[in-house]
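My main concern about presentation is that the manuscript never shows what a single data entry looks like. Each protein is reduced to its one-letter sequence and a matching series of backbone shape codes. For the editor and my fellow referees, an illustration may be useful. For illustration, here is how one protein appears when written out as sequence plus structure tokens:
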Amino acid sequence: MFKPITFQNENYLIHPFRPEDLERFGQISKEVFCILSDDHTLKFVPNKRLSTFQEAELFLQTMLMNAHAERNYLHFITDKKLSKVVGIIDLISPQVAQEHYQIDHYPFFIEFYLSSFASGCYLMTDILPTIVDQILSQGISNIGAVVNRDNIAAKKVLKKAQFRYKNPFDQVQDFYEITQN
């Protein structure tokens, strides 16, 4: 069983949904809605758009249940000074990937989304290597990521975290992977 990731640096706390977050469920829902309804954030993944606050609440409820069912593991990037969720990291199990993709092998997949004001600050460049190390240290041997070919920033972040280009994923996206040696 995957153990959710928790760590912090000077500015950010990376964590799963915690019991104390229940008291802030409405606020976290608003913060997630802001991220997943932002045009800048969704430029390369418009299909992830949430249209209403109620969709954000349902999204979070579903993610909480999925974590308990070991389907996927949602993590928040919380700005410690603002006490605000500024990003989301989702680790998707191979079983869920099989439900959505037809590929040769099914690693765990990682997805990340940042609020527009947090992008361009090297946030993911700083934290993704630690996240990857923590995932691999749990016996997960490889992690995949799918990125839009035009998303230069995301490709740079993946490469700096030691992901390697593998092959085209579909007509607009490429598949990157990191494998533990």
User: Anything to note?
Assistant: The first helix runs from residue 25 to 35. The beta strands are 7-8, 12-16, 72-79, 84-92, 108-114, 142-148, 164-168, 173-179.
